[in-house]
Automatic annotation (TrEMBL):
Species whose genome carries this gene: Paenibacillus segetis
CDD domains listed in its UniProt record: NAT_SF (cd04301)
Boundaries of every N-acetyltransferase domain copy: 12-151
The protein, known as: Diamine N-acetyltransferase
InterPro entries: Acyl_CoA_acyltransferase (IPR016181), GNAT_dom (IPR000182), MshD_Acetyltransferase (IPR050276)
Highest taxon of source: Bacteria
Amino acid sequence: MQIHLKDIDNDNWIECIFLTTNKEGQHFINEEFVASNAVSIAQSKIENGWITKAIYDEDQMIGFTMYGFSYEDHCYDICRMMIDHKFQGQGYGKAALGKVIEEMKKIEDCTEIFLSFEPENQIGKRLYESFNFQDTGKIVDGELLYSLKLK
């Protein structure tokens, strides 16, 4: 497994928007636990602070992430992370989350990372807790808010 992050650009954006977490391969604006990649890319062009990256295993695009500074919430946030349905259950989520955290640690004033997820997303919960994300006890838009202190 050779996981790396790559900017969304003219060469890969179409492939990226066709990734889906839906087991049947169908595309929706809002998927079970995450907004579609098309919505996320559009959001990143309208709202300042977001970084969008495709997640690759060597030359194969396997997922998408959006992270950065949320001007709305005034904090650093992993806003989106998804692994395409064809690659789920193979350890890619853990490897990709590790890469995103590595990138966010390089941001000088990023001392804490937040993320939120639906309470039903037990796989996500176990993943985040394996990286020592802690439950803040807050619920935002029906999602549990977790944080990881970096410094």
